[in-house]
Amino acid sequence: MFDDESASEALERIDDWERSIARRAEQAQALARRAAEMSATARSRDGLVEVTVGAEGQIARLHLDEQTRQQPAAATARQIMQTLRAARAQLIRQFDEVTAETVGADSETGRMLTAGLRRRLGDEAP
Questions:
Q1: What average pLDDT does the segment 118-122 reach?
Q2: Closest by CA position to 37, among listed 23, 49, 55
Q3: Looking at residues 65-92, what average pLDDT do you find?
Q4: Do residues 99 and 64 touch, judged by C-beta distance below 8 A?
Q5: Quick check: 112 and 103 in contact, CB under 8 A?
Q6: Rounded to an integer, what distance in angstroms lies between the CA atom of residue 118 and that of residue 120?
C-alpha cells in the first residue's frame, strides 16, 4: 500500500499536523490568560466620571467626582453610560491587539472570539 518514501511523507504530514494543533492550542491558551487579566478605564470629558471595566466588560470600578452633585442626575447617568461605552471600546481594542499577537486577528479563532466579545458588549462594529 505504501512504499517507504510515501509512508515517510505521510508520517511527516501527520507530525506537522500534530505540531500545528499543539501550537494553536498554546496560542489559544495564551490569549485566554491575557484576556482574563484585561481591564480598561475611561474618564468623561469633564473628568467627573471614571469607569473601569473588567475582562467581560462588567463594571469593576465607578468613581464619581463630588462635583457630580451639582448637576442633574440625568446628566450624571448619561456621563456614566457614555464613559462605560468608551471603556468597553478600549477593552475591545486591547482584545483585538492581544488576539493579533496570539492567535492572529485574521484567524478563524481570532475572528470568532472578537465577534463574541463584541456581541457580549453590544458592539457589533467590525
A1: 87
A2: 55
A3: 96
A4: no
A5: no
A6: 6
Q: Which CATH superfamily is domain 4-121 in?
A: Nucleoid-associated protein YbaB-like domain (3.30.1310.10)
Q: How many residues in the chain?
A: 126
Give residue for cell 467626582: 65
pLDDT at residue 54 greater than cutoff 50: yes
Instruction: Please list, in sequence order, all residues whose beta carbon lies within 8 angstroms of the beta carbon of residue 19, skipping any fewer than 6 positions away.
Output: none
Alpha carbons 66 and 62: distance in angstroms, whole number: 13
**Contact predicate 53/38, CB 8 Å:** no
Question: What pTM does this model have?
Answer: 0.80
Which of 76, 77, 39, 78 has the alpha carbon at shortest distance from 58? 39
What gap in Å lies between CA 40 and CA 87, rounded to an integer?
5
